């Protein structure tokens, strides 16, 4: 397997690969690492990651869940650092507006309010703790049903707003 093969499968599945970089490396005990960088926030990271993991990822575990060395294939997909930084910087003003609005939620400590509702996620904001808790509707059993994001600073809130934008499928 090589990067051309991975890109070919992405093209066949309808993805525009002009803003996607693929690297395939072998290390250790013949483990293979497929590393994908996206250079456009309009590319659906989770969708591409799920597609590649279904197609390529193959990891062997022993009886207690530890990864066995050798002949594994790992897949990582992420946005390019510069692309992500530009998106975060574009969200700084909106992030400050959200932070400034936290007192209007009028919550006691440990109490949250619905912040947004998406098709498969409910987002709750805990204004006193400056946390956003994302409750995932369709997680398989045994998988932690929610994720928490610290949003105590303008930068952290901007990072979260970029993630939210990707979930909503919007562009900046």
Approximate strand percentage: 25-35%
The geometry reads as: globular
How much helix is in the residues? 25-40%
Low-confidence stretches: none
- Put simply, the count of helices is 5
Mean pLDDT: 89
- Please provide the ordered H/E string of secondary-structure elements: HEEHEHHEEEEH
Number of strands: 7
Strands side by side in the biggest sheet: 4-5-6-7
Structural class: alpha+beta
SSE topology:
Elements: H1 3-12, E1 20-27, E2 31-38, H2 45-56, E3 73-79, H3 81-90, H4 92-101, E4 113-117, E5 121-126, E6 131-136, E7 146-150, H5 154-168
Helix pairs in contact: 3-5, 4-5
Structural write-up:
The chain has 172 residues and is of the alpha+beta class. The protein is 33% helix and 26% strand. It has five helices and seven strands, in the order H-E-E-H-E-H-H-E-E-E-E-H. The strands form two sheets. It has a four-stranded antiparallel beta sheet, with helices on one face. Strand 1 (20-27) and strand 2 (31-38) form a beta hairpin. Helix 3 (81-90) packs across helix 5 and helix 4 (92-101) crosses helix 5. The chain is globular. The model has no long low-confidence stretch (mean pLDDT 89).
Describe the structure concisely:
With 172 residues, the protein is α+β, with helices and mostly antiparallel strands. Helix content is 33%, strand content 26%.
């Amino acid at each position: 397997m090589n990067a051309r093969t991975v890109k070919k499968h992405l093209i066949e599945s309808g993805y525009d690969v002009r803003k996607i970089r693929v690297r395939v490396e072998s290390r250790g005990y013949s483990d293979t690492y497929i590393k994908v960088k996206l250079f456009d926030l309009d590319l659906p990271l989770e969708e591409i990651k799920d597609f590649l993991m279904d197609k390529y990822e193959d990891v062997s575990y022993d009886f207690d869940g530890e990864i066995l060395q050798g002949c594994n294939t790992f897949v990582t997909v992420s946005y390019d650092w510069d692309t992500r930084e530009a998106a975060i910087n574009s969200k700084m003003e909106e992030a400050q507006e959200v932070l400034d609005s936290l007192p209007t939620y009028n919550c006691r400590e440990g109490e949250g309010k619905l912040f947004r509702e998406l098709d498969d996620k409910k987002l709750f904001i805990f204004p006193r703790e400056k946390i956003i808790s994302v409750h995932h509707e369709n997680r398989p059993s045994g998988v932690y049903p929610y994720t928490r994001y610290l949003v105590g600073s303008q930068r952290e809130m901007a990072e979260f707003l970029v993630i939210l934008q990707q979930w909503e499928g919007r562009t900046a």
